[in-house]
Write a structure and sequence with these properties.
The protein has 22 helices and two strands. By secondary structure, the protein is mainly alpha-helical. It has a domain of 37 residues. It has a two-stranded antiparallel ribbon. Helix 17 packs parallel to helix 20. The chain is elongated. One of its GO terms (biological process) is cilium movement. It is found in: Cytoplasm.
């Protein structure tokens, strides 16, 4: 029988106790998932990494919700969805279909979140006037690139301004003005008129106490804003409906007369004359142009005087009253010489030359065309030379016909010599006529 093996004795090996961590499944996955970003930048948290992985719209929404701006989050989300819907409704043939959407424009999202968050904070504090100012500022920033956003925020500002008490409606008036200017920018002129008329009526009630940021009477500003948009709308009607165009130009004139802008009043008066002239109501047009002329004279405005006289002269020519037209062109000569306006002087000389040429007064026509030709070489090129040449030809033709009608051997010889030499005169010899001077120039 084999010998029994001796018992194994335990050997005590000195060591330090080592704690082996027990990893959960989640910890194991996180341990194995080390990103290059986390390895490269010390102190980068898991939240930082998540922000890089999510869209800017998602991060902006989370940030707003974390700060408690729920309404701002809802509004941005609604705007994003509305933009997508409008894009689909417009279709691929629309010029704006391929414009970038809000989620693809981080800077715009940041701007929206910043201003809407501030507006929501101010609204909670009951500072409604400051809310309107914040929204107006946001609308102004969006105006150039996203007019639809600008329109949205101006309308929101208007609705909030209706809740403000204690400012006599001042903020509401400003909101109507801002929205009206926005509609004008979008060429929605009838909507612009509606809002600017509301602005005008409110300023009319408080014109003595309200002033602009520059210290001017706000009534002047309201009159000018409405005058401008009335005039623009009248321009769109000029061809299709001249009568309606006159109505809006008349409104523009009536409203600007309530302001202290003398120059704008004169301009509106002139445009009213133009509208009547386009409608072929020449007598009424003359009345307006002459009123404009008197205003310009009163203001010592030589440019205005020239403008008015030219309009009166053109209207008289349309009526067939050419001598009266010439009178006002001569007034332009006086005003342009007094103000040293060479272009107006040259143009008036050319106009007088044309008027006298039409009346058959060729000598006067040549005189004025010659003056125009002397001053207009650099400005008109060969145009003035041609006009002078035509008038001179008419003058020579008149002279020539006189000799033809007064036929004799002597005049026949003079005409023949004129045709050969083309020196501008028809000479009749002394031997044939008995003249003491040797020859006679016609």
């Amino acid at each position: 029988m084999a010998a029994a093996l001796p018992p194994i004795q335990s050997v005590s090996i000195p060591h330090q106790s080592v704690r082996v961590p027990v990893l959960s499944k989640k910890d194991t996955l996180q341990e194995n998932k080390v990103t290059p970003v986390k390895q490269g930048i010390a102190g980068l948290t898991d939240l930082d990494i998540a922000r890089h992985r999510q869209s800017y719209l998602h991060n902006t929404s989370v940030a707003l919700l974390e700060e408690g701006y729920v309404n701002s989050f809802i509004e941005i989300f609604s705007l994003v969805e509305s933009q997508k819907m409008q894009r689909e409704l417009a279709g691929k043939d629309s010029g704006h279909y391929y414009d970038p959407l809000l989620p693809a424009e981080p800077s715009k999202l940041e701007t929206l979140a910043k201003h809407l968050g501030l507006a929501e904070k101010l609204q909670r504090q009951g500072k409604l006037a400051e809310v309107c100012s914040t929204l107006d500022k946001l609308a102004h920033e969006c105006k150039q690139t996203d007019s639809w956003l600008s329109d949205h925020f101006y309308k929101k500002s208007l609705s909030i301004s209706e809740l403000i008490e204690g400012d006599e409606g001042r903020k509401l008036a400003e909101s109507h003005k801002n929205l009206g200017l926005m509609h004008e920018y979008q060429d929605s002129l009838l909507q612009a008129i509606q809002d600017l008329e509301a602005y005008f009526k409110m300023c009319q009630r408080h014109g003595e106490t309200w002033h602009t940021d520059h210290g001017e009477n706000i009534m002047d500003d309201a009159c000018e804003q409405l005058r401008r948009v009335y005039t623009k709308y009248a321009d769109t009607l000029q061809t299709a409906d001249p009568v309606a165009a006159i109505e809006y130009v008349q409104r523009a004139y009536d409203v600007i007369k309530l302001s202290s802008y003398i120059d704008k009043q004169a301009e509106a008066c002139y445009l009213l004359g133009v509208a009547y002239r386009e409608a072929k109501e020449y007598k009424t047009a003359l009345k307006q142009f002459k009123s404009y002329h008197e205003k310009a004279k009163h203001n010592r405005d030589d440019d205005g005087v020239i403008h008015a006289c030219d309009a009166v002269s053109d209207t008289y020519q349309l009526m067939g009253e050419f001598m009266r037209a010439a009178e006002y062109q001569k007034k332009i000569l006086e005003a342009s010489q007094r103000a040293d306006i060479n272009t107006a002087y040259t143009k008036a000389c050319a106009s007088l030359g044309g008027i006298y040429n039409r009346l058959g007064l060729y000598e006067e026509s040549v005189t004025y065309f010659e003056r125009s030709n002397e001053d207009s070489t650099a400005m008109n090129g060969g145009v003035s030379n041609v006009q002078f040449g035509v008038a001179n030809a008419h003058h020579q033709m008149d002279n020539y016909l006189d000799h033809v009608l007064d036929y004799s051997v002597q005049t026949d010889l003079g005409i023949a010599s004129f045709k050969d030499e083309h020196d501008g005169t028809i000479n009749v010899s002394e031997d044939c006529t008995g003249s003491q001077d040797g020859e006679e120039d016609y």
